[in-house]
Design goal:
single chain, 9-stranded antiparallel beta sheet, 34% strand, Transcription activator effector binding protein, AraC_E-bd, Reg_factor_effector_dom_sf
Amino acid sequence: MYNPHSILLYLRPTRLIYVSATGRYSDVIPKVWERLFRQLDDSGLYESIGRGYGMAHDNPLDVGSKNCRYDACVEIRSGIEERSLPEFGITTLPAGPYACRRLTGSYDQMRSTVENVYTRFRPLPGLCFDQNRPVVSIYMDNPNNYADQDLRSDICVPVSTVEETIPSRMAANF
């Protein structure tokens, strides 16, 4: 995902409801979003949700593609009490710096970006992939209200600064 047009953003902690799935990202992402929207519709909460967030928790090279964890999440608008959400998990978007790239087009086509980000992402100098936070996809547009070619999503890779260590013989010179 190295792209000179990527930007660095700080994502704030955001209260989310979610549904989880485990498996190959290309298989589980569409299914878990369908399940989330069905549950939202059944509970009458579909109109009360905000922006969508996908959280890919695992590098397929480390855990195997069949063991990757993914959460389909939506922002909870203020005024909704957590006790009215028993069929959903409740979490907070992990805050921090992310290298983000805007994509446009079908959300289905964007899945391959999530699946490949772990092998293709090249951080800017001084930054490294932060393995303590998930890769986050932010879905800007409701696919029911926009044509596929007009959909926008930000793929956000968690980053942290590279801590340079000073060799002990050099440290004495400072």
